[in-house]
Design goal:
The complex is a heterodimer of chains A (281) and B (318). Chain A has 281 residues and is an all-alpha fold. In chain A, 69% of the residues lie in helices and 0% in strands. Classes of the chains: A mainly alpha (281), B mainly alpha (318).
Chain lengths: 281, 318
């Protein structure tokens, strides 16, 4: 299946290309943000409070006279870390659990899958709130909480994929050669499990960014003066009538990022798993 | 059907019990003293000792758990630490207000989602279908909390039509005053979900329209309206039931955000209040109630699904 990515003559769909370009741009801005920012994102300037967008301040200034454009730039890496970091955590825990559950039928599988069933029967936000409720908030905690929220679903998908692969002949051949469990899982199953897992991961990043920034918006993420976009939107609320740009700038950037990630995820799905094309999941 | 129901009920009871263990464990086993957390970093050790005494925090954990759990079984959620009144009625009042929000939203989502999905599928490729598909992309990706800001900006700040925040009980403000405070929160809640449901109904409806039984129905000369209503639609709606149940989970998340922004005194806002103020009885009780609501919604969806689709009644409900 992964041959589809590199097959000569097959061009990437336009929407996927566009999504990749926007995503690449955000990545670039997040990496270069500190060098591009015209002002110190945290520097107060009480003489330039609540200024509307202008040549000097592209996105205006906030209630402390901080440059909103510089803050949006400085905040880009938060959303990216939440999306990709949390998804990486859920992959790192969920995939091994799912593979083990598929390989070791019986009690081990039963224990893992009942735990998964239990955690999936909780609304995601509630699970996130529960993890964050009793600890000091911060970027790392939010990423960890969002990652943990999506572990059960990753486990379930990895198990389903592995169960299909375990019935294949190359696994039987490896068993006949007398290979151990680790070799079979790591060298035979995992390399072949990637395409469906990549699809799920790509779609999961959108949800992770959404959940992470919603938790930040609720005050359970990075704390002020951090320039996380959800937090910036929350902080802009008292000034919504006099200075709407404080919230609009990070909000529109967040939407752009989410749409780009979503388009890339769906593009990858159509490319790697054409059977699912057009399904809205 | 009876066996299926019994199995689902048993798993529901298990989920609720496991959630009480999980909530209790997270609150009590994490490093740091609970009393310290409640009183803050400037508390004197005497004050901490007094609070630990009052809350029974020095008892063994299993005793503390049993005291809380047996209370829950009798409908006693403990006493709110910040309001000095039993947590049960506080949670119940908040639940009632959230239920209004959720019920209106889910009905709107089901009606509008299915209607738009059918329209898109039966007019596939048309300008309106393409506009809807583009809209779906947009509406699914925009976070609820940003919608809140946008609708407040537009309808409250610029147009001045609707109040930005607050809540008026039906008895005080009359129907109009009550409804005025509901319009923006409900609108914010349903936008993304309608997009989600209509998208799914569109694809499952398209699939149904390409199926052999629809071909057969058309071949025997049934009018297109009847083909749609009697053959395609019932099959296309099955996935919609499942996705509506999933959406209840998303809706609960949305309600937490939307109630916080619009200062609507429901269960979601109460949970955030309880977390911000470290009001543990309120927080723990609220989480159990939300889990129960979500589990019941899923059970309702499963039953509905089994009623519509006889195949699932025989096999185990995975």
């Amino acid at each position: 299946m992964s041959a589809a990515l590199s097959a000569p003559g097959r061009r990437l769909p336009r929407s996927l290309l566009l999504g990749l370009v926007v995503l690449g741009l955000v990545l670039l801005l997040a990496a270069l943000g500190p060098f591009l920012a015209p002002y110190d994102p945290d520097a107060f300037n009480m003489r330039a409070r609540l200024r509307p967008p202008s040549a000097a301040h592209w996105f205006g200034t906030d209630e402390f006279g901080r440059d909103v454009f510089s803050r949006v730039l400085a905040g880009a890496h938060h959303s990216l870390l939440m999306g990709f970091g949390a998804t990486a955590i859920s992959l790192a825990i969920g995939v091994p659990l799912g593979l083990i559950a598929a390989f070791r039928r019986g009690l081990v599988e039963e224990a893992i899958m009942r735990g998964v069933d239990l955690l999936i029967s909780l609304p995601p936000v509630l699970l996130g709130l529960l993890i964050l409720a009793v600890t000091e908030p911060g970027l790392g905690k939010t990423i960890l909480a969002v990652g943990l929220v999506y572990v059960p679903i990753m486990t379930r998908i990895a198990r389903a994929v592995a169960l299909d692969l375990l019935a294949e002949e190359f696994v039987e051949a490896a068993r006949a050669r007398g290979e151990g469990a680790f070799h079979i899982l790591a060298r035979e199953i995992l390399p072949n499990a990637w395409p469906p897992l990549i699809v799920e991961t790509a779609l999961r990043v959108t949800f992770a960014i959404l959940l992470g920034s919603a938790l930040s918006f609720l005050g359970l993420g990075p704390q002020p003066p951090a320039s996380e976009w959800g937090l910036m939107i929350a902080e802009s609320r008292p000034f919504i009538s006099e200075a709407p740009w404080i919230g609009l700038a990070p909000g529109l950037c967040l939407c752009l990022l989410l749409i780009a990630v979503n388009v890339v995820g769906e593009g990858l799905r159509d490319l790697l798993d054409p059977r699912l094309k057009g399904r809205g999941h | 059907m009876a066996g299926f129901l019994a199995r689902r009920l048993a798993s529901l009871v298990f989920v609720l019990w496991a959630m009480t263990v999980l909530v209790f464990a997270v609150v009590h086993l994490l490093p740091g003293s609970v009393a310290h957390m409640i009183l803050g970093e400037y508390a004197t050790s005497a004050a901490i000792a007094a609070l630990e005494e009052r809350l029974g925090l020095n008892d063994p954990l299993h005793l503390q758990y049993w005291r809380w759990f047996s209370g829950l079984l009798q409908g006693d959620f403990g006493v709110s630490l910040t309001m000095d009144r039993p947590a049960g009625p506080v949670i119940l009042e908040a639940l009632g207000r959230s239920a209004v929000l959720a019920a209106i939203s889910i009905v709107l989502v089901a009606l509008a989602g299915v209607a738009l999905g059918i329209h898109s599928a039966t007019h596939a490729g048309s300008a309106s279908d393409r506009a809807l598909t583009l809209g779906q992309y947009f509406f699914i990706a925009v976070p609820e909390f940003f919608w809140c800001i946008l609708v407040i900006l537009f309808f409250s700040v610029w147009l001045g039509w609707l109040p930005a925040t607050g809540y008026t009980p039906l008895a005080e403000g009359g129907l109009l005053g009550w409804a005025k405070h509901l319009i923006l929160p409900v609108a914010t809640l349903v936008l993304g979900l309608i997009a989600h449901v209509s998208r799914l109904v569109r694809s499952s409806m398209l699939e149904a329209l390409e199926s052999r039984y629809v071909l057969a129905a058309r071949a025997k000369g049934l009018p297109e309206r009847l083909v749609l209503r009697r053959h395609a639609l019932p099959n296309a709606l099955m996935p919609a039931i499942t996705v509506l149940a999933v959406d209840v989970g998303i809706l609960i998340g949305g309600i937490v955000v939307v109630e916080s922004v619009f200062a609507y005194p429901g269960l979601g806002r109460m949970l955030i209040y309880a977390i911000d103020n470290q009001d543990l009885p309120l927080m723990m009780g609220g989480m159990i109630v939300v889990t129960a609501v979500y589990a019941l919604a899923n059970l309702a969806a499963d039953i509905l699904y089994a009623v519509v689709n006889p195949r699932i009644r025989v096999g185990g409900a995975a």
